[in-house]
Specification:
- The protein is 54% helix and 1% strand.
- By secondary structure, the chain is mainly α.
- Among the domains are: 111 residues, no CATH class; 148 residues, Orthogonal Bundle (Recoverin, domain 1).
- It has a two-stranded antiparallel sheet.
- The termini are far apart.
- The N terminus is likely disordered.
């Protein structure tokens, strides 16, 4: 999203101009173009305000503009009265049909917010937690979440005030972001120089100075909002004789939506010719981010000089009054961005200290994570070793002992006495594999006896000394 699209509107612009903003084709000679006959006018393209509730805001304004009574009040109410909430009270006089549509819009918006909140809860791992929609919706100040069903005066008042405050703060944030962009760019250039040897550093510095010089070598830039600047647009963009310059005609030519005001986008379009003198997207030395910042600086300057009631719109009356001032006829020279550094040396020092601290914190986190990884790997190796030992023990416990000697089957009718011996409960298939010549020291050997002979236990033969 470009800067131009973010800062094109605010406050009353949101209420009056939001649906009819359109870039001004200032390079077009309007006096020489024949408009096609019987061609239906196309609605101007939508321009994003940069607000997260942009669509809701547009749709509310769109419906309110359909009510003739509210539309008249909208165009006739002073900006201060709008900020004070007087316009919001006119909602009570809006037609029932429009109010019904606004009610439905609000219900859809509340439903959208609840869906987003639930999705955020799911992403953050809060699936098991009950979602308190009422508590979470409090952060969205542009609508009354306590009443999710009907669009009331308080809702319109909240919407106006929120849009006003958010856009004003956005202006400040834009300046800070551009300053950070410039400091980051300079910091990266300095860091890159540190990686070069003396000869490479010298060449890089020479190239940098050459690019700065080429960028600064451009035609004179007219002071934004001055007679000279408008005359140049009158001549080159409108194709008219600069000697015939007429402020009122000029205003009507460039009031693209014909509402009697210059909004911010229409003003910015008037500065294109001046910006083309400084910036060319094909040139290495020209930064297009800086070009948009320059455009906005010009617009802000004109608004500060001409917009007397501070509604961020320039009316025809305000414009004509400004053309009679000395600043319009004899302006001072305009200092471009290269003549005005966006940051101070102190801000740059603090910025680099902040970057150094961030780098240190990241390195510390990386070191801690590496230690955790090493410890996990050590524990995993220990577990793997224990697993291998356990598997080895199980294998040894289940191993079958190797038989000694050859296997000979027992004679027919011979009983295997080991089956009746205490503690000798073994599987039958293992018993049959025990060799016949393996002596059981706990049981005396049995001999085959002649038929009818009683089986007497054999007495062990004692040494002679015992006898």
């Amino acid at each position: 999203m470009s800067w131009r699209r973010i800062f094109h509107t605010s406050c009353l612009v949101l209420l009056v101009q939001l649906l009819c903003l359109e870039a001004v084709p200032i390079s077009l000679d309007k006096t020489k173009v024949n408009q096609p006959e019987d061609k239906a006018s196309e609605p101007p393209p939508s321009v994003d305000t940069g607000l997260h509730y942009d669509r809701y805001l547009r749709e509310v304004i769109d419906f309110l503009e359909k009510d003739q009574h509210f539309k008249e009040k909208l165009h006739n109410t002073d900006m201060e009265d709008i900020k004070m909430g007087k316009l919001a009270k006119e909602l009570d006089f809006v037609s029932h049909h429009v109010r019904t549509q606004l009610d439905e819009l609000k219900r859809q918006e509340v439903s959208r917010l609840r869906t987003l909140i639930k999705a955020k809860q799911d992403i953050e791992g809060g699936n098991d937690m009950a979602v308190d929609h009422q508590a979470l919706l409090k952060q969205f100040e542009y609508l009354n979440h306590m009443n999710p069903h009907t669009f009331e005066v308080e809702d319109l008042d909240r919407l106006i005030k929120s849009a006003t405050n958010d856009l004003e703060n956005y202006d400040k944030e834009r300046h800070e972001e551009f300053k950070k962009y410039e400091m980051t760019k300079d910091h990266e250039r300095r860091e890159q120089l540190k990686t070069l040897d003396d000869e490479g550093r010298m060449k890089e510095e020479e190239h940098y100075e050459e690019m700065k010089k080429k960028h600064a070598d451009h035609p004179k830039v007219n002071h934004p909002g001055s007679q000279n600047q408008f005359k140049e647009v009158w001549e080159e963009a409108d194709g008219l004789d600069p000697e015939d310059f007429d402020p009122k005609t000029f205003f009507k030519l460039h009031d693209s939506n014909g509402d009697g005001f210059f909004d911010e986008q229409e003003l910015e379009a008037l500065f294109t010719k001046e910006l083309e003198k400084i910036y060319d997207p094909t040139n290495e030395e020209d930064d297009m981010v800086e070009m948009e910042e320059e455009r906005l600086r010009m617009r802000e300057h004109v608004m500060n000089e001409v917009d007397t009631n501070k509604d961020r719109l320039v009316s025809l009356e305000e414009f004509l009054t400004a053309t009679k001032k000395k600043e319009f006829l004899e302006p001072d020279s305009w200092e471009t961005l290269e003549q005005n550094q966006a940051y101070t040396d102190e801000e740059m020092r603090e910025f680099e200290e902040h970057l150094a601290q961030q780098e240190e914190d990241l390195n510390q986190k990386a070191s801690d994570l590496q230690k955790q990884r090493d410890e996990l790997e050590r524990q995993q190796e220990q577990l793997n070793s224990q697993k291998v030992e356990l598997q080895q023990v199980q294998i040894e416990g289940n191993a079958i002992p190797e038989p000694r000697g050859e296997y000979h089957p027992l004679p027919p009718g011979h009983k295997d006495m080991s089956q009746n011996h205490p503690g000798m409960k073994q599987d039958s298939h293992l018993q049959n594999q025990i060799p016949h010549n393996t002596q059981d020291l706990s049981q005396p050997q049995l001999q085959d006896l002649p038929p009818g002979h009683q089986n007497q236990p054999t007495q062990p033969q004692l040494p002679d000394e015992t006898l």
